[in-house]
Here is the input.
Amino acid sequence: MIKIKPQTLKGFRDFLPKEVKKRQWLINILISVFESYGFEPLETPSLEYAEVLRGKYGEEEKLIYEFETRGKDKVALRYDQTVPLSRVITQYQNELVFPFKRYQIQNVWRGENPQKGRYREFIQCDADIIGSSSPIADAEILRLVLDVYKTLRLNITIKINDRENFKNMDKKYVSAIDKLEKIGESAVLSEMVDKGMASEGAKKALSSLQKKPQTAKIKEILSVLKKIGADMGRIIYEPTLARGLNYYTEMIFETVAQNSSGSLCSGGRFDKLIGKFLPAGRQGSGVNVPAVGFGLGFDRTLEILEEKNLIPQLKSSSKFLVTTFNKDSKDKSLEVYKKLRDESINCEIFLDETAGLEKQLKYADKKGISYVLIIGPKEIKEDKATIKNLKTGDQKTVSVEELIKQFNN
RNA sequence: GUGGAUGUAGCUCAACAGUAGAGCAUCAGGUUGUGGACCUGAAGGUCGCGGGAGCAUCACCCGUCAUCCACCCCA
Here is the structure.
């Protein structure tokens, strides 16, 4: 055997138990909020036929992980969740309930150059409503986002805009304006000039944009939001917000945390995207399929929660460690362990009956197990067990039945 | 794709042109029935890889690979 250097692929990560617990905690919260609004889970395969993904992402297509299987199938790793969603919608038209409200939390892969907070394998959390063009759908999405962050106890603001505001502007200038928050007004203006706009024109375009009043659509959405009890103080109309204009059609939004830049969660309405993926010849082909939704930056959200200390301390799932004192007492330990298991109490038994107590206590301490059961000659004589609370250091000797009674509820 | 930085013990990092050291982690002791703290000790490195200059280098030069950061781009 050749000794292999332990190493993960560039942009790919291992998650050790501590981290996985935090990630699972966040995922569970997301799921419960999504489901409280009637969104249903969807999962799609990691691999798709390459042709399903081809021609859908423009220049980004070169970042798709694509390869050939041994059976010569051309396949590609999931690049986002919107394209697979589109495929699912056309493939299962009869089985889905429309408007289709689905959430999807799965890994996606992109062959990008990794940098801070950006990886080649990362989890994406999407929630979308397919098949409704009602402003109520837009409002529900926004309220859902507010609820997610409220549940996480994170102070956020949602910036909202209407793509309508950029109707007459060339895409290249829009992408410059999108950076306003990040690089400032003068840098934006000089970028617009670099891209071909006259200096005066750029100034004028920017300032007229900044003065644009709310569009009818935005007014309507905000009015619904108010009626359904959203925290309106967290929503700001921001006419310069551009955000991935390539496929959004009307409302767009972006969520930012207090005192920090960079968005945590963003989305909008994309009525023309899904229809594009419908295969020709099928019913609905070429037709607009209205859709509104968002993608939540999982890693970024977790990072901020960590920063603000909003992740609860997550304990070991084992409540007890049953120690094995020595070879002679081993059977008694096994018996106690069995009784705890019979009662479905979370516990584990130390897996080396030759190890000293010290080692076993250390193990429990490191794993964050709350209680240790010590069963040695003394205890066996009395048919009892000593229970030690590792946090307080208190310990007492009781019968197993008493112990179970005390901890069973 | 472009630019910058860094590769030395399992991890985080020192040092010095004369063949490497600390902290943490590991293991063993400090009264073989008690963890987190402390003390003592041990083990652990072809100094990323290849080449070059030099009496000699981990240190200097060139190349290469890898990682990180930023830009570009962007869900």
